[in-house]
Every structure is written in structure tokens, then in C-alpha cells.
Write the C-alpha cells for this entry.
Amino acid sequence: VTGERAFLEMLRALPLHEGARGLVDDAAVIEFGGRSLVLTHDLLVEGVHYLPSDPPGDVAWKLLAVNLSDLAAKGARPLAALLGYGLGEGEWDRAFVAGLGEALAAFGTELLGGDTVRSAAGAPRTLALTALGTADGPVPSRSGASAGDDLWVTGTIGDSGAGLSALREGRHAEALVERYRRPAPRLEAGRRLAPLVGAMMDVSDGLLIDASRLAEASGCGCGIELAQVPLSRALVAAEGDGLDARLRAASAGDDYELLFAAEPSRAGDIGALSADLGLKMTRVGALTSGEGLGLSHEREAVALPSSLGWEHR
Amino acid sequence: VTGERAFLEMLRALPLHEGARGLVDDAAVIEFGGRSLVLTHDLLVEGVHYLPSDPPGDVAWKLLAVNLSDLAAKGARPLAALLGYGLGEGEWDRAFVAGLGEALAAFGTELLGGDTVRSAAGAPRTLALTALGTADGPVPSRSGASAGDDLWVTGTIGDSGAGLSALREGRHAEALVERYRRPAPRLEAGRRLAPLVGAMMDVSDGLLIDASRLAEASGCGCGIELAQVPLSRALVAAEGDGLDARLRAASAGDDYELLFAAEPSRAGDIGALSADLGLKMTRVGALTSGEGLGLSHEREAVALPSSLGWEHR
């Protein structure tokens, strides 16, 4: 099976639109009619990105939310979505559409079009969504961070991964499962952070791997202090807040929080924004000269775990 | 299994963007700063829309071409494409990317982004593509035809369906198979026809079913003279040009020709454009008052076949 990295390398040899940002960013950006249009396209595969037992309305919510999270990371306001849908069993399809309607309303966006197909018999579903947004100001990339920038993250990390573990192991953990099934893209935070940051992306594959990608795209290294990684009360109640729990949280993925690099002089503005939005924003590390990711826990160096996150292999 | 029609009815109850055109058109249209952005999203499913034995480069070509055909029908110039791809076996993936590169170059468009996912083990592939185009003039809908308009089609009809039959039955029919595997979206014809037509769409599911849809969307009926349906020499050599062959051709689908309705006074302009492009354009019938599709063959009424085309059931 081809790895994602190798496949992306092949795609980079094709004719690329300049708005593709070299296929290293979360979204594409096109200037059109005096506006910046931001486009993203994400697929969900049954059994890979969601559990066959997940409620269909939650799958619809997640399909929209993961795409809008990419728009949030680019400071864009959602405009509309195109849906690619494999028809299946009637009850599931009806519940999916109901959940999609809830999500569209919750995020203030609308359906623009798409395609429905007959699914192959017995095959897991593949669901596709393309989200279109508009940005009025700068559109942060992954690659604009500089050595010396602080590295920040919104909200709390690891809840969704812990929710998935609980589901798989049949444990009760409602708040964590809710984070897994109904992620909340940080749309307003993204729009208001965009002018303050050097680089921004969403945490979809895991804080550690996504931070490495941001640093690599920016030609920097990156240090993360695990004791600073923000954990929710629900997560600490379920898993504690020791080093192991923190490493698990930081490599679990599906957080859909914003990860951003900003000059230290921005800390005051970021703190004020955090207070204004009622959304935690936590400095978890810094960009460094050199390359690679370094971890510490209470200032003691920590070896990198074997997996930094989800690698699409 | 939910039918496409029932599913679309459910989607129509969701918050729709005005550019969605009520989900009755081939593409969505959004105005920005006086320009029209045209968006379309089509999926191909292995075993449903292409044969597992089809060469991967041809599958890539088809994935792009069927989306660009929707842009052609809206008179739009392709701008870029987002790809949704399920990773699989390395050799297939490499050949797919090579074919995608050929198709991007052939149609003068570029890759803008997308997503790659791990496919579910053993599952048929689902491939997604979102194409973006721009239109500087009017963007024809399906619904703008009037009773009394002529109904026209570009090129020849039925080749692709006959190519697919030949492949399934192990018969040799190179030219027809080429039409099935490498459809040619009528991009320039679409741009130049857009100002001349009342309604336009592409023929993807079959001439008869697509003509019915255009007529229904326009609040008209439609009559088609089967003897006028343009057949290629290759098709006539393989299947003859009797009524049965014509009915098969007109309900086979995958033609990716343009179907359009125009006032009779436009016939001269359409003829001149056809000559200029070296692309056959044939009047196959007319829009009528009332509703429904009527068929004739050499002016004798013909009963509708049990299937007018591909219905996504």
C-alpha cells in the first residue's frame, strides 16, 4: 500500500495551482473577484475515520466539522459545502441527513451541491465533503512560523482519542465520546487569531505529529513541554495526568483544536482574545532553530514515543 | 437502499445556498465580484462507474473528465481540481497519478488540493473530485428551456455504452472502448454555446433520461426523433443503426456530450459554431408544451423503453 507521503510526492509533480500552496497546507487559497476563497476537501471512511456503530447523525456532523476545522485554521468563514455520498440503507441515510442539517445550522453554513452514488455492495461507506470559505484578512499557512515563536493550542487535547478508546473498550465516558463524535471547529477563534499568528493549522492527527509538520513546513524545530499540554477534567478523571496519559493525549488525534505559532509579543493579545471568547489558549512550547521535535516533562527531556500521531499509512 | 431521488428530496429540506440552484442542476454557481465561480463534485465507485480491470490512468482521466463535463455544460472554463483519494496498491496508484497528470495537461487545468485516506481493506475504491471553473458570461441552467425550442446534442451518442458492452462481452471495439474510458468534455463548445442556449446539461446518464430531466426542470415536455440521434461509424459498424440500436444508444449513458435547448432562430449560429469547431451538432427533437418524453422513429411513434438511462438506484 502506498504511503500518504509518497503519494503526495507523486501529486506534487503534477501541474499544481498556485493556490494549492504546494500541497503542504490544510486548505487551498484562491483569489477570486477580490476575495480570498479557501477550499478544503476531506473524506471519511467507515472503519477508518469513524466506527460502524457511530450514530449516523454524528458521522454527518463530523464530516462537516473536520472540513470546517481546516477553514478555521485558515481564518476563513464557512460559505457552503458540497457533499459526496454513497447511498445505503434508508434509516441510516435519513439520520445522516438530519445530522447534516443540524451541523449546517450550528455552523451557519449551507449546502451547495454534490453527488450521490450507489455504494458497492457490502463495502464500507466513503463520505466526501468539500467546504468553501471566505477570508477577508491574511490566510495563515503552516509554513510561516519563525524560531523563537511561541507554540499555542486552543481548548484541551486528547479528549477525542480517550473517547474513542472508551468506545472501543466499552467504558462509559460521555463527555469524551461527545468530543470524538461531535468535534467543534474553532471558527471564530480562527478568524480572530489569523492576524496574530505566524502559522496556524488544526490538530487532526495528533498534537505531536501536527506540531512537527508545522515546524518542518516552517523550516524550524519545535520543543513541547508536556506538562503544559491542556487536559480536560474529564480526561484527567479517566486517565490521570501523568506522563503516559499526556503522551497518549498528545499523539491521539481528532482534537480539531487550533495549533498556532506567534511571536512572544503577541501573548497579551492572545490572552485577551482567549478571555473574550471563553476559550482556553495555552502556550505548550516554542519554535526553535534547527529541526525536529523535542519533548520535555517538567523540564526533563522525554524520548519521543514510537508514534507521534496518525500517519495515514 | 435509498433511491437518489428520495435522498435528494431529503437534502432539499436542508439549508441550501442560493448557488445550489435547488440541487436540480449539474453544478453550483456563486457570484464573487462580478464573476461566476462554478463548482461540481462527482464520485466514481469501482465496479459501479468503472470496471476493476480498467487501466488506472483511464480511471483518473475519467474522474477529471466527468467533472469537467459538468463545467462544460455550464459554459465554464476549468480552473482547478481537488482530489479525494483512497490509497491502495502502489503500481495502481502510480499509474493513476500519471493518468491524472495527462488529463490535467490535456484539459489545461491544475491540481488545487484534496485528501488521501487509507482505503478499508478489500473494499472497492471510491474516488472523489471537485472541479472549479469560472464563467464570464451567462451560466445556463437545466431549467431555462421553453416549449418550441429545438433540442440539440453535440458529437455522437451511444459509443461509450457500446464500448462498455464490448468490454463486458470480450469483443474487440477499440474506438468505442476509448470513448468509454477517455471521454472528452466539450469545454470549448460549452463556452461558446452558453450565450446561444436556453438550457444546457451534459449527457451522463443517457440521452433519453437526461432530456427528460431537462424538460421536466424547464416545465416542458420533449419529443425526440430517434432517426436523428447521431451515431458514429464505429457504433453503426458494431450494432447497426436500426431502432433497437438507436434505443440502446440513447439510453446507455457515459456520453459526456452536451444536450441543449435553443430557439429555432439560433440554428444558423449553432451550425456556424459546429463548422468552426469541427464538432457535429445535431437537432434531435424539440421541447413541447405539456410534460413527459415522446419518442418517434422516422416519424412513427415509438413506446418508451423500460429504462431511459442510468438512474443511480
Observations:
- The CA atoms of residues 142 and 214 of chain B lie 5 Å apart.
